[in-house]
UniProtKB/TrEMBL annotation:
This is Helix-turn-helix transcriptional regulator. Keywords: DNA-binding, Transcription, Transcription regulation. Residues 259-330 form the HTH arsR-type domain. InterPro entries: ArsR-like_HTH (IPR011991), HTH_ArsR_DNA-bd_dom (IPR001845), Metal_resp_trans_reg (IPR051011), WH-like_DNA-bd_sf (IPR036388), WH_DNA-bd_sf (IPR036390). CDD domains: HTH_ARSR. PANTHER family: ARSENICAL RESISTANCE OPERON REPRESSOR ARSR-RELATED, HTH-TYPE TRANSCRIPTIONAL REGULATOR KMTR.
């Protein structure tokens, strides 16, 4: 179990990341490739990515990455620098500029009491060729295992962010914290958050800001930095539902409702199984925000969805009439 206790100041400073953190997604997705957790959700992705890595000749490089990203209690903190930096290249540059003493200390924790494997020993020494190979492997893996799925990932992040924003607007900082108590195995008791975790641990904030980062490939237990002197980060699961991979594919056949309201508007309605923002819809549909806004206006005027402003965003929900149009229930 992991426990995070908040005082009033720490609770008021609780922060949600704005979007996807590429390096945390690399870490969590590598963990998913090493085990069969949440098989119904991730097995189609595992099969697809495994085949893509093999075609690209990247399996040896990915096996090397798994040595430093083991699906275990610990992996080195230097591999996930910063707090939810959305820029992959900037993040990889930070990884490669890690001081040599930190490389050696953190990599040594992977093999306590044993010598490091040869490849990792060169990396721990700050060897420039080893660092360049690490940077190349991170970028190439991301391009095949994460980047093709960004529309689905961003849609999940947008939906989660809307849910957290609604909780914060309704219940303030306490409401935001309590909203994480709905995750499986997570509990919120006043100002204390408890989550599943491989070992018993208390994350001490000491007056600092905790950044909560959404993790598409994170399952049940959060991910956190091992070194408590670093700015605290907690990566929480988004819990995509089975079939997300197929639903994220562009459909060659238009939905039946498309004959009535048009393909883009029918696809937009299909996405509203749960509330989403205009930005989240635009990302999922690969449309300009202005175009998405026009579609939502037409659907709202027709009574097929309702919209409500929350802070700087607009949250859309499908109505019962919209559901009926999708299901072909109208005669």
């Amino acid at each position: 179990m992991l426990r995070v206790e908040f005082n009033g100041r720490e609770l008021a400073r609780l922060r949600m990341a704005q979007g996807v953190d590429p390096l945390w997604e690399i870490a969590a997705s590598l963990h998913r490739l090493q085990n069969r957790r949440a098989a119904l959700v991730y097995d189609p992705w595992r099969r697809e990515v495994g085949a893509a890595l093999e075609r690209a000749g990247l399996l040896p490089a990915v096996r090397g990455l798994m040595l430093i990203f083991p699906a275990a209690t610990y992996f080195p903190d230097f591999l996930t620098p910063g707090c939810a930096d959305p820029d992959l290249d900037a993040g990889v540059d930070k990884v490669l500029s890690t001081p040599r003493h930190r490389l050696a200390a953190e990599l040594s924790r992977l093999y306590p009491g044993s010598p490091l494997p040869h490849g990792l020993r060169r990396l721990a020494e700050g060897d420039l060729d080893a660092l360049r190979r690490l940077g190349s492997a991170l970028r190439r893996y991301y391009a095949l295992a994460v980047a093709p799925y960004l529309p689905a990932i961003r849609a999940e992040v947008a939906a989660d962010r809307a849910q957290r924003a609604e909780a914060a607007l309704t219940g303030g900082a306490e409401g935001l914290l309590a909203s994480y108590g709905v995750l499986p195995g997570w509990t919120c008791d006043g100002t204390a958050l408890r989550t599943p975790y491989p070992v018993r641990r208390e994350l001490r904030l000491r007056g600092r800001t905790l950044t909560l980062v959404p993790g598409f490939f994170c399952v049940r237990s959060p991910l956190a930095l091992a070194d408590e002197e670093l700015p605290p980060v907690l990566v929480h699961p988004l819990s995509p539902t089975p079939g997300w991979l197929e639903r994220s594919r562009p459909s060659e056949a238009a939905p039946p409702a498309a004959q009535l309201i048009g393909t883009s508007r029918a696809q937009l309605l299909q996405l509203l199984d749960r509330p989403m923002t205009t930005t989240g819809l635009a990302t999922a549909l690969a449309l300009a925000p202005s175009t998405t806004s026009r579609h939502t206006s037409v659907l709202r005027e027709a009574g097929l969805l309702i919209s409500r402003r929350q802070g700087g965003s607009v949250l859309h929900r499908r109505t019962a009439l919209g559901e009926a149009v999708l299901e072909g229930a109208l005669r």
